[in-house]
Amino acid sequence: MRKRIRFSDDWYFCPHQVTAGEDGQFERVHLPHSNYILPYHNFDEKVYQFTSTYRKRFTLPYPQNGGRIFLDFDGAMMAATIILNEQEFPEHRGGYVPFSLDITDYVVDGENELIVLLDSSERKDIPPYGYVVDYLSFGGIYRDVWLRYTPAIYLDNVFITTENVLDSEANIKVGVRVHNQSTDTQPVIIETIIRTSDGQEIARFSSQPLELTTQTQQEVELKSPVTGFALWTLDEPNLYTAEIIIKRDGEAVDRIEERFGFREAAFKEDGFYLNGEKIYLRGLNRHQTYPYIGSAAPERLQKRDADIIKYDLGCNIVRTSHYPQSPYFLDRCDEIGLLVFEEIPGWQHVGDEGWQALALRDLQVMIERDRNRPAIVLWGVRINESLDNDEFYEKTNALARKLDPTRQTGGVRFFQQSNFLEDVFTFNDFSNGVESPLHRPHLITEFAGHMYPTKTWDNEDRVLEHALLHTRVHNQAMATEGVSGAIGWCAFDYNTHKEFGSGDKICYHGVMDIFRLPKFAAYFYSSQISPEERIVLQAATYWTNGDRSGGGNDPLVIFSNCDEIEVYIGERLIGKFEPDRTRYPNLAHPPFTVEGLGMRWGDAYDDLRVIGYYQGNKVAEQQIDASNTPHTLKLWCDDTQLYADGCDMTRVAFQVVDKYGNRLPYAHTLVELSLEGYGELIGENPFVLVGGQGAVYLKAGETSGIVHITAKARGLPEAKVSVTLITP
Ligand code: GAL
After folding, report:
1. Mean pLDDT, range 322-351, rounded to an integer
2. How far is the CA of 134 from the centre of ligand 1 (A)?
3. pLDDT at residue 168, rounded to an integer
4. From residue 609, how far is each of 417, 573, 630, 688 by CA, in Å?
5. How far is the CA of 450 from the centre of ligand 1 (A)?
6. Whole-number mean pLDDT of the chain?
7. Can you give the pLDDT at residue 537?
8. What residues pair up with 444 in beta bridges, in sequence order?
9. How far apart are CA 405 and CA 423, in angstroms?
10. Which of 95, 116, 143, 461 is most exposed, with minimal Cβ within 10 Å?
11. End-to-end CA gap in the chain
């Protein structure tokens, strides 16, 4: 029967190309793997652009039993030549999509040698390269690898669609490809069982008997009415599984499971509808890159990003700019109810015929990989912000519609006069306001970004204005007819090329920094969360008298979902305030604007205290120390437990804070970290705080136990945190 084995452990890595006969200096590694551990900024991107060699020697964990064996790569950056027992496969070009090799005929019973020669350079023949690109692709086998056993008669390429889920006549269709690699023609039937996530069966149906000719494949489609399901919604993202079984003489020969959800998603002229309900889309763009490790983030970090975007930032949509992202990230989007706009790799440049063929291949692989995910509501079929190229984009649209007639297409451009070949006009609006749509349905797919790069240690005026830019655009987009929503640029600061960054190879465009720590803009997003879910209250100030141009603190802006606040300076009540509905009438939770504080540069100064009320009850309080004195070195890990598998990771973050716990943005303190136990810190150590904060990653070792981390900074008590490593 079918087996899928994670094949990511015990690889050997050499940072150059090892030719036959040469031994090379190999290091034992586990995947996901980055071919070069970088500083978080100020590096030359050429350092990871080389060809490396990955080697894995293995004996087959199970006998072949007349079936097929595949090697499935979730992603290797950028071009991979695979050699198995001296059999060389054609180079796989493209680092953002998965690929599979049928290795059945090349594996042997004893020891096998698998070699991956991985070219991680910016190859002009492969999307996104050919011209300049505003992000880095990094290098390495940065996603998992799997060994897949199937019988000789097997299933793949499942496509589950649902119809009329909002009325009583709902249907489910299951498409599947059936392969017969056996030597005979086979009489089979296909059966499907639909189950809830806790295993309860809600439907079962079968195909007519089929004759499968030897050495062929056939597309089969089954359809059945279905009742008794719960919809996939943003608050209750109910997931189901379809188990598809191929039977010969009543016996199961192969079975495959696929997850999906029942939901209806549509962009219409007047906005976006999920299950018939109109929803304003408030989102952010996400790059899949991280400090130090590039793109090689393990499952836990991938999932955590989805959680940050949904729960910390209160977004309901994310755009996977500018390429298909990790299956783990997308799994989590399905699980938590975070909508996704997924697009093909590329950035402004369209290459020659060969390049375009790869882009079409990317599109096909992306859709076939992800079309059962309820979270995905739109396919991006254009190269981000490229000029019109009707011939090419007619092809991408036709291909997407053929592979998935249930989802609309979009294609991101930066000018509204562009030919509208897609179903949704997806537009990067950098007007710092909202352009009135020329085409509908219309979705803003980027704004802010390079119009207002902002660092966590910028002056208060700038960090505040950055937050207000996001606030204003959403406020305006919500009231602009025909606009379905706005996806800001972007969630997290990211490493980039010199043509784009702030000189240290970072684009400071995130509402969070590269370590996923918030700027004020992050609190605009989180303040839009319902107060029933979580109370948010953050004064967007460092509460100094001389940081803003001209001095003082006017106006004081507070991001909160409370319905009333009280502001005190010292013991003096400044007043009670309501959300600023005059400036931001369309937001569910406008920020509070407190004007006329009357404090000027040089005036005597006292602590700030803001109290938040919701439905008449005090629910939150924030105080800021007017003396801004470093009080505590705060240290925390996002997880208390990790798997002792040699690749699991969690973020270790630290901040210098005042006596009330507020970050001190100008504490550029040196922090020294030390670790005891079976683990490794990945990142800069010692670390000079950036905007009063920073982070590294803890990578688990391979022995269970407790890891203790200590952080020291001059003049502050040392901080400790521990993480338990458990057996996977
Ligand atoms: C857009 C582009 C993004 C990013 C952004 C910065 O033009 O699509 O990738 O570069 O600008 O604002």
Report:
1. 98
2. 7
3. 87
4. 50, 9, 18, 30
5. 7
6. 97
7. 98
8. 427, 486
9. 11
10. 461
11. 24
Known catalytic membership, residue 122: no
592 with 620: CB under 8 angstroms?
A: no
Summarised one tens digit per residue, pLDDT across range 469-519 is: 999 999 999 999 999 999 999 999 999 999 999 999 999 999 999 999 999
Residue closest via CA to ligand 1's atom 9 equals 134
Instruction: Provide the 8-state DSSP code for 107.
Output: -
* Ligand 1 atom with least separation from CA of 348: 8
Nearest C-alpha neighbor of 652 from the set 600, 687, 621: 687
Phi, psi (rounded to 5 degrees) for 147: -110, 125
**Average pLDDT of span 334-352:** 98
Q: How far is the CA of 74 from the centre of ligand 1 (A)?
A: 26
Structure tokens at 429: 């609006």
Q: How far apart are CA 85 and CA 335, in angstroms?
A: 40
Report the DSSP pairing between strands 494-495 and 506-507.
Answer: antiparallel
The whole-angstrom separation of Cα 519 and Cα 684 is 21
Percent of the chain predicted with pLDDT > 90: 96
Catalytic residue selected from 45, 368, 385, 684: 385
- pLDDT band of residue 681 (cuts 50, 70, 90) is very high
Select from 413, 446, 496 the residue to mutate for testing ligand 1; criterion: most ligand atoms less than 8 Å from CB: 446
What is the torsion angle, in degrees rounded to the nearest 10, for the CA atoms of residue 551, residue 590, residue 623 and residue 309?
Answer: -110
Distance (Å, whole) CA 245 – CA 65: 19
Token reading at 173: 């269709």
Q: Which amino acid is at 326?
A: S
Task: Please give the distance, rounded to the nearest whole angstrom, from the Cα atom of residue 430 to the centre of ligand 1.
Answer: 9
Nearest to 128 by CA among 390, 443, 412, 373: 412
What's the number of CA atoms in the CB half-sphere (13 Å) around residue 154?
Answer: 19
Q: Which atom of ligand 1 is nearest to the CA of 321?
A: 9
Average pLDDT over residues 155-181: 96
Cβ-contact 148, 69 below 8 angstroms: yes
How many residues are listed for the chain in this entry?
728
Q: Answer whether 591's CB lies under 8 Å from 579's CB.
A: yes
Residue type, 520: F
Residue 251 catalytic?
no
3-state secondary structure of 307: helix
Residues ≥6 apart with Cβ < 8 Å to 390: 419, 421
Residue 284 tokens read as 């952010």
> Is there a contact between 653 and 698 (Cβ–Cβ < 8 Å)?
no
> CA 284 to CA 487: how far, in whole Å?
5
Which residues line ligand 1 at a C-beta cut-off of 6 Å? 134, 321-322, 384-385, 428, 446, 449-450, 489, 509
Burial class (CB in 10 A: 0-12, 13-18, 19+), 588: middle
Helix (H, G, I), strand (E, B) or coil at 397: helix
User: CA-to-CA distance for 112 and 726, rounded, in angstroms?
Assistant: 31
pLDDT in tens, 107-135: 999 999 999 999 999 999 999 999 999 99
Q: Which residues contact residue 483 at a Cβ distance below 8 angstroms, ignoring those fewer than 6 apart? A: 271, 434, 437, 442, 443, 444, 477
Query: CA distances (Å), 70 to each of 60, 84, 308, in order?
Result: 12, 12, 35
pLDDT at 676 over 70: yes
Catalytic residue among 446, 460, 465, 684: 446
Secondary structure (DSSP) of 187-204 = EEEEEEEEEETTS-EEEE
Mean pLDDT of 176-187: 93
